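INFO worker-7 received task bundle
INFO bundle size: 2
INFO processing item 0
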Amino acid sequence: MNGTSTLQVDLDAIARNVGLLRALCAPGVRFCAVLKADAYGLGARGVISTLKQAGSSMCAVFSPLEACELADFDIPLLVLMPVMAHDVPVELIEKARQGSLHFVVHDSTQMESLDSLGRRLEVRLPVHLKIDTGLHRGGCVPRDAVIIARSINRSRGLRLAGVMTHFARAASNEQFTSNQMRQLDSIVEHVSNELSPEVIVHASGTCGALRGSEYHADMVRIGLAWSGYLTPSATELERRLPEPLHPAVSWSSRLVLTRTIGEGERVGYGGDWMAKRPTRLGLVPVGYANGYPLEASSPKDGGPGLSVEFELGDGTQAMNAPVIGRVSMDQLMVDLTDLPDEIRQGTPVDLISRRPESPCLLSGIARRLGRSPHSILVQINSRVERVHLRGLSRQSAGSKSAQEMELPVPNAVAG
């Protein structure tokens, strides 16, 4: 650990999750891994090869800048935001010429701009026509879809590679999702004469994919689920998988100080937390500047009562210590009173655990905070070291790291 904490990403767990999600789909359905926001903060360059090896035939990013970070990987990239010709940096020109940089068309103005770029490059850029069927977050209105699709096919700088939409309530409202799918199917039928056999029709994110094959079309776009997590509203849908997803993320630090205070002493800014007994405290050098949730204070402070986790003995057991007082910029305090004396300065501590039964599991933290798992991950500061490892999934909960076990770690990446 070079800094005060490390975010570990289990590549084997990611590969298993892709396998579980692909098992829901017919063999011909393609898998697109969504890598927005640097793979939800996990480090896109560290996970993209594993995703490809596990069966992802395309990866989606939001912006051309995100595409630049991955342009040297041999996999097609789908850029989701409305991109104009002047938004495309020179670093992406070669990938565009190769036909492995796909753009999403949202309206006719943007289409014309991309057409001009394709004509300048003397290629037909692959584009996916997005249709707004109810999310109202980009895409053309349905009545314009046929006109734009025909314009793309008549253009010299574009090639219609896909037709797509995005579900608005796939986790919670099957009727609304079904209506959106019917709208997409109807438009695809209207433009069927304009579609070559290579055109990909796609609509489903993770929740749509979990709902059933009627929503899969030709490709599913899977976001954070490849790392083993779902939004709290989607947990019921997870039962449709052959087995639960495998959590891939742990966030570890260490105790840098312990001390004991007396009954009635207060901890942290504002003195909101007061000891009701002699209390042994531990200081963890991670705070809200690192991305630890500021609202994670103890219930006495009106917070959700998050905790941290310590491994005991041979690593097969774990104990938790509650976070107390206010989370500071770069440190937090925990109550060690009920833990054995072996928990002392230098002891490793997990802020996020991969153990499915742990209260420090990312999905459990998200439920307590009333947030989504990805909203927590993307706020973990880039100064926190990301390490991508193989071999973690073969260990029992809390056992030694892959390096300590002398397991092969061919894809170790820090970023």
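INFO item 0 finished
INFO processing item 1
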Amino acid sequence: FIQFFSGIQDWAGKIDFDYIPSPNHYIRFGISHIYHTFNTGATQFNEVLADTTSIDTIIGTPNVYAQESSAYFEDDWMVTKKLKINYGVHFSNFYVNKTDYPSIQPRFSSRYLLNENISLKASFAMMQQNIHLLTNSGIGLPTDLWVPATNKIKPQKSWIAALGYAQTFKVKNESCELSIEGYYKKMNHIIDYLGGASFLGTNTDWQNKVEAGEGWSYGAEIMLQKKTGKFSGWIGYTLSWTNRKFPTINNGKIFPYKYDRRHDAEIVMSY
């Protein structure tokens, strides 16, 4: 028989603090540290011959060890009765193969009440992800592998911005809410298998089977929700695009990725 396996083992420690200097501020901050051990793929072959001789061997790429340190700060600030904002920043450093990947990731979100029933929302965030999801998209096993950033493969970086509108109203004294939100996300240093490559073939390091590219995700969602009463539920519709671009995949042209959900409608009812 043949078995393929991979995995991640983590040892982690963290501490978080809450601080409320006044009724208008709710401050959170903390630090954490994680020691990662990545098994990025190994194949076990076991064969029993006619003379009952058993051959059992495991081959694959060596483990990757990494350390991730981070600290964060955020504040929920009630600026006025109408305006509330949350702002903060996340610091991190990913150390792997004698290489450091530091990052500063600001986050901001806000809500403004036009009146007691209508609100506007806006948000912006920058992110760095040090672990990649590598998907085998060819014919065969639909295997997903989690692999780390290395001295050859950079961490993924992205930013996302969103705008939203929400309104509450009553229908026969029952509370309802209408919300509309649009977003745009840009991603860099995302990875995918080169054409014809997959997680099989352990004579080649996985780092030599992938290439880095960029991606975009954007769209809008509208939802009508009834929250109270014996009969409740919601109707939602999402129009969105998710695209990728790699130097050698699809001749370097932009193409829809597997997370592309051009039209997504749902109806949920509860009585």
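INFO item 1 finished
INFO post-check item 1: The two ends are 51 Å apart (CA to CA).
INFO post-check item 1: The chain is about 0% helix and 70% strand.
INFO worker-7 idle
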